[in-house]
Amino acid sequence: MELQEIERILKDVLNVEEVYAQGENAHFGVIVVSDEIAALSRVKQQQTIYAPLMTYFTTGEIHALTIKTYTTEKWKRDRALNQLN
């Protein structure tokens, strides 16, 4: 599965500001920037992000998915701090 496809699917289905995917060989990670999703419990975040990708889990194109969520403000802060390091 292509990283850009994961990003496109999540952007098309979810209300997100930014999405970044990384990984290979059916093991992927996503960073999702969304105030709405970040406000949910961890379980609800996972359910929300997994839902549009479930077909790919079923086919084995995605075997594992690591999820990190950020509010817009926290993402801006973390990016600014990382640029200083």
Automatic annotation (TrEMBL):
Q: Which InterPro entries match?
A: BolA (IPR002634), BolA-like_sf (IPR036065), BolA/IbaG_stress_morph_reg (IPR050961)
Homology family: Belongs to the BolA/IbaG family.
The protein's name in its UniProt record? BolA family transcriptional regulator
Starting at the broadest rank, the lineage of the source organism is: Bacteria, Pseudomonadati, Pseudomonadota, Gammaproteobacteria, Pasteurellales
